[in-house]
Amino acid sequence: MKNSIQLSPKDMINAYLLFFVIHGAQVGVGIHGFQRVIYQDAKHDAWISVLLAGLATHIIAFCMIKTLEIYGSNDLYGIHQDVYGKRIGNFFNIVYILYCFVAFFSVLRNYIEVIQTWIFPDLATWFLSATLILITIYAFTGGLRVIVGVSFFSIVLALWILPLLFVPLKFSSIDSLFPILETNVGSILKGAQSMTFTIIGFEILQIIYPFVKDKENVRKHVHLGLLFTTFVYLFIMFVSLTYYSEGKLTKTIWATLSLFSFISFPFMERFEFVAVCFWMLIILPNLCLYLWAACRGAKRVVKISGKKFVWIFSLLIFIGTLFVQSRTQINTINTQFGHIAFYIIFVYPIFLLFVTMLKKKYTSQKEQK
Amino acid sequence: MKFKLPFKKKQKPIVNTSHNNKEILSPSKIDFIRSIKDATHSPADLMVKSMLPNLTLIYINNLVNDKNLNDHIITNLQNATMETPATIKQIIAIAEVNISSQLEEAITAIINGNVLIHMEGYSQVVLANVSTRESRSLTTPENESQVIGAQVGFNESLSTNISLVRRYIMSPDLCNEEIKVGTRTKTSLNILYMNGIASDQMVNTLRQRINDLDVDALLDSAVLVEMIDDNTLSPFPQMLLTERPDRFCDGLLNGKLGVIVDGSSMAIVCPQSFIEFFESREDQNLRWQVATFVRLLRFSAIFLSVFLTPIYVGALTFHYEVIPQAFLVPLSESRALVPFPPVFEALLLEFIIELLREAGARLPTKIGQTIGIVGGIVIGTAAVQAGITSNILLIIVALSALASFTTPSYIMGNVIRLIRFPIIILAGFWGFYGIMLAFCFILVHLLRQSSLGAPYMAPFYPPRFQDMRDSLIRLPLPYTAKRPSSVRATDQEKYNPEVEHPKKS
Amino acid sequence: MKIFKFYFILLFLPGILSGCVETNILDRVGLTTLVGYDAGTEEKIATTAVIREVNPEFQSNVEVVTTENETSKGNRMKANRKLSKKIMVGQMRVILFGEELAKDDLHFYIDTHLENASISNSLYLAVVEGETAPLLQYEYKNIDDIGQHIYRLIEQNVKQEHMISSSLHEIAHDFYMEGKDSAMPIIKREDDLIELTGIALFSGGKMVSTLPVEDSFYVKLVRDSFTSGIFETIIQKEDIPPNLMTGTASDMPVAFDAIRSKRVLKLVDPTTPEFDLQLKLKARLLEVYPDVNLGDPKVVEGIENAVSKNLSREISRVIAHSQNVQSDIFGFGEKYRSSVRNSNLTKEKWHEMYKNMKVNIKVEFDILRDGVFE
Questions:
Q1: Residue at which a domain ends, from B272, B303, B332
Q2: pLDDT by residue for chain B (505 residues), tens digit each?
Q3: From the candidates A123, A157, A269, which should be mutated to test the interface with B, based on the most B CB atoms within 10 A?
Q4: Is some CB atom of chain A closer than 8 A to the CB atom of C11?
Q5: Which residues 3-22 of C have a C-beta within 8 angstroms of B?
Q6: Do B120 and B178 fall into the same domain?
Q7: Are B331 and C58 an interchain contact pair (Cβ–Cβ within 8 Å)?
Q8: Where do Basic and acidic residues bias regions lie (chain B) (predicted)?
Q9: Could you tell me which chains touch chain B, where touching means 3 or more CB pairs under 8 A?
Q10: How far apart are CA B100 and CA B83, in angstroms?
Q11: Residue B99: CB atoms within 10 Å
Q12: B317 plus B437 within the same structural domain
């Protein structure tokens, strides 16, 4: 099919790195406090919601890969242009770029909020956003290879945090999980929907797909990445549900960070202060990948150099962070973004798969005639 | 956005100087002597010696070996009769004898230590190479000493160095290409690599980079490294400088390329990944358990060296919450008299340590030791007593300085010490957030680098589990039979990993 | 490239100049290690803070400052006016409440401390018999830093499993749990020493009753488990098996250590509600008076049975006491909630049911070994 992307092997990445890209893109600021949001809907069955949300990501990723396989070597933007035609396709592309923009913004703003609440209440927002954006730009300008490298290291270097979560387990009681399935199915599903904000990120697959060298292995590594994310979220959810009592969990805004409060080493106490700062490494791939995805789209829609786009993008983000100041504003953005993201990430790909399959059938029939 | 300096891209201007070069030497003796004197600006050590019946010898006194000149040239010339320069060439008992009639060639030869033998009536001259190069004898490598292993280092002579390498690798596959760099110094440098192991593409890249250089002088290999490595502006070296022939040969045998520059005791090995700078040749000589331990020790030392002082500064300036209660009292009491904020205190102490190091490096060895004692004991104790610094910080700074010296590569050790300063300042302004900013920045920076096109963070990124067996840790030999994939070696296997264990009798 | 550098400098120079944050340099702040709250006059909060300061004379001294204001932050500001150094709360280890205040409501205090990110979740809460201010202001002969002393005292006893743990997290956890109430240790000044004297039982945020310190073993036994506790009891005359009654006419004191316990709680009847509480203890016999032959399995079994009986009786007593004051510090309600579907348990509802709760206690006590000398 037309406008597929041709790349030299030098720019391409191995499929197994997709594991890190997918997982790195999913885990970010959402993990700080997703327990509370889901708990409000699904109560102590929240872990079922997490499991369901994880399952949903697998299904959607399956659909995404199916769609991409029809085109061989093309990204979402190219598919849009091919399926809907140049004009409508570009409209969809712009929507997607905007989505990436908002996603970038919300990751950045949420992280700044965490920093300001936990450590530096008087550190200016503009300074935090400027420093984070600059580092993102520095990584972005290194190209995809560097961005994937950042995702790789962010995961490998953060793996040691996971076993630390066993420490709070000594205060946990398994009774908090029972009775299982007390909450009705509707609420659990609603909880799963609330996971959207936390679990998205794997849509980057639709953009990165043409850059993968061995496309036949994509499926395996994407699903492994999603599985690992689901496992991490599930584990944190279990620990939180048993560690916090029902009332305390609904009142704790960043439950994951508060979990760290009990962790202490002989040379260091209050691990959460370190964790909050260390989280910069974990959100960095988020930021880089969204910026990169937006940039790929912008290049498809209009003729613009990557450098120029990055500066415009960052400037808009920077100005945006200055305007959103209060916690309520941030929460509104998170909720609204979560709703929109649900449709863009969890509903739209299924629709797109149908459209592309129809189109494929149509064109192949035409060719036969 | 690649950092490139402009001088690399400048191509050598091709000036058509052919008619100048083709100047023919004069057959007349007086004209010949004058033309040589003019071309060399008649230096004081230019010797002109006339020999009967019609010979003239011209050479530069300090460049030739007197014994060779006397024994093999003058004696032979006196004892025989000659008609043409061709017969002279046969008579002289010297290996390297040429005949030329061009002035340019003659001048080059005389500067390289040849003796020009001119015969009245012929425009051809005989060029007999009796050059001698002043160089020190082979000594132990001063900067890269190791306990177990060879105790010989490169010296400043190109030919000695190459002979050292050839002694380690007795193979016809050892390729040796000579390139001259520097329009004025005409420094010769040799590219060495193993044919059949090293990747041709990398050899071409390296050759291209050296050929593209347009500089007037090249005095040391360290300068060459800065000119030809991938990112000149990065503080991190992307090619290894070593004065150990065994390390050099180890690199060659792993498929890397080596460059030896005349007049420099440091040889270049490339491509080199970041992690390999912290590996010592000695690791191969130790049992794998010990080697792994030493490597892990070294890596944790680097981590400590870079982040210990900043963490102290950050914790004391902003994050007093993270300090355990047991430390609280000693920490705050040791700082009670100190009038400065922790960041200034730390910078001051780091500055003193760097001063001591620099002073120790500049002074003769004997005085250098005194400086160490004076600095360590007198300044340290006095500073604590005067209340300028706290004694806990003194320990931390000394520890991180000590840790930075464990790096086997001195140049990398310098970088480790240097990058500590911005991190301390960042920690002083923004605490752990500042440290994390620096950490992310360094990580991204390292990821962006490459060494001769090979990834700098290999084998961690791109992840190659096979290569990781000999990186942060060292597994037993049967597990490390493969050459690192980042050098794109033609022949991947070093040896057959299926070791046949000798039967116990 | 030059443009990039230009931007970089442009952003960083003012960054360094105006992005500076307020510093909390360790030796220039006064670290609050302990705060005591008392009920003040006219709806105000009386706060007594123990603040550690460092002097240039290489000595750290401890100031005890008492202030009274509407909020705890207001008290901090007031205390700041009395001290040369900024007061920080990030190293706070203990919060004490006056008895009168605890009997009123602690909800507000738990919330304020949870809200502040710089306050650790692992600090200990305790109730003081009487008022906190006199306890903290008293000049103890051998105690240098009263804040640290009280922290060590509680920590040591919690670690040794002599006292129930009462970290902020656990208190808040129980407080916000529908089926459980919180309990805290009680401390008291005894001449020149500070002593743990009992356990304060809470119902919601209100302290409703106390238990003597000797009962803390039983409370802990039912509340959670032991990994290496110490326990001493007196076997009453009627429990002693006849074959052990060799010449002793009085009660029989025994002591155990290295106790490991496990509790299994089961809801058997949701309507009453009725629970089966099964406790399994394993211990090492440390002291027994008078001398009995521990080599005889029958004797050992006799002691085991006697101790089990004794434990059941004591535990029933403690549970009955807590039922009387409607304070479910053992978490029976949580078991009820997790066993009964759609119970929609609230604290009030549970407290009503708790009064009528029945517990069938079954204690299995095993003596694993005794010492090196029989």
A1: B272
A2: 344 444 444 444 555 444 455 678 888 888 888 888 888 888 888 888 887 777 888 888 888 888 888 888 888 888 777 777 788 888 887 888 888 888 888 888 888 888 888 888 888 888 888 888 777 888 888 888 888 888 899 988 888 899 999 999 998 989 999 998 888 888 889 999 998 888 889 999 999 999 988 888 888 898 999 888 888 888 999 999 999 999 999 999 988 999 999 989 999 998 899 998 998 888 888 899 999 999 999 999 999 999 999 999 999 998 888 888 888 888 888 888 888 889 999 999 999 888 888 888 888 877 777 777 777 778 888 888 888 888 889 889 989 988 988 888 888 999 998 999 999 999 998 899 999 999 999 999 999 998 888 889 888 888 888 888 888 888 888 888 888 888 788 877 877 766 556 565 5
A3: A269
A4: yes
A5: 4, 16, 19-21
A6: no
A7: no
A8: 490-505
A9: A, C
A10: 16
A11: 16
A12: yes
DSSP assignment letter at A3: T
The CATH number of whichever domain residue A304 belongs to comes to 1.20.1740.10
Q: Which of A131, A175, A251 sits opposite C176 (nearest CB)?
A: A251
CA–CA gap between residue C128 and residue C196 (Å, rounded): 9
**C175 vs A contacts (CB less than 8 Å):** 247-248
List, edge to edge, every strand of the sheet that includes B114-119: B46-51, B55-60, B114-119, B125-129, B97-100
Domains of chain C: 18-214 (no CATH), 225-369 (3.30.300.210)
Choosing among A270, A272, A274, A305, which should be mutated to test the C contact, i.e. which has the most C CBs within 10 A? A270
Does a structural domain hold residue A172?
A: yes
Q: Inform me whether the C-beta atom of residue C174 falls under 8 Å from chain A C-beta atoms.
A: yes
CB A135 within 8 A of CB C12: no
Residues of chain B with Cβ-Cβ distance to A159 below 8 Å are: none
Strands C206-212 and B97-100: unpaired
Residue of B nearest to C33 (CA): B325
Establish if A3 belongs to a structural domain. no
Please name the residues between 308 and 327 in chain B that touch chain C, using a CB distance below 8 Å: 315-318, 320-321, 323, 325
A131: which 2 tokens? 């420093």
Q: Is the Cβ of A305 closer than 8 Å to some Cβ of chain C?
A: no
Number of structural domains chain B divides into: 3
Beta bridge partners of B56: B50, B118
Give the best residue of A153, A261, A309 to mutate against chain B (max B CB count within 10 A): A153
C90 touches chain B (CB under 8 A): yes
C-chain residues within 8 Å CB-CB of A248?
A: 172-173, 175-177
Same domain, B267 and B292: no
| Contact (Cβ atoms closer than 8 angstroms) between residue C42 and residue C53 | no
CB neighbourhood size of B280 (10 A): 22
ipTM above 0.90, yes or no: yes
Q: Which chain B residues are within 8 Å of C93, Cβ to Cβ? A: 325
Does B318 sit within 8 Å of C21, measured CB to CB?
yes
Nearest-5° Cα angle at C26, C20 to C31: 115
CA distance C214 to C199: 9
C36-70 burial code (b ≥16 CB/10 A, e <16): bbbbbeeebbbbbbbbbbbeeeeebebbbbbbbbe
The percent helix, strand, coil of chain C (3-state, each to 5) is: 35, 35, 30
How close is the nearest chain A Cα to the Cα of C173, in Å?
5
Mean pLDDT of all residues in C242-256? 67
Q: Which domain holds residue B34?
A: 25-129
Considering only CB atoms, B433 lies closest to which of A153, A156, A277, namely A277
- Residue B278 falls within a domain, yes or no? no
User: Domain containing A20: what range?
Assistant: 9-368
Contact A176 C338 (CB under 8 A): yes
Query: With an 8 Å Cβ cutoff, are C21 and A264 in contact?
Result: no
Q: Is residue B182 part of a domain?
A: yes
Q: Tell me if C122 and A261 make a contact (CB, 8 A cut-off).
A: yes
| Same domain (yes/no): B314, B436 | yes
Residue at B296 is within a domain: yes
Question: pLDDT (tens digit, 9 = 90+) per residue, A139-157?
Answer: 999 889 999 999 999 999 9
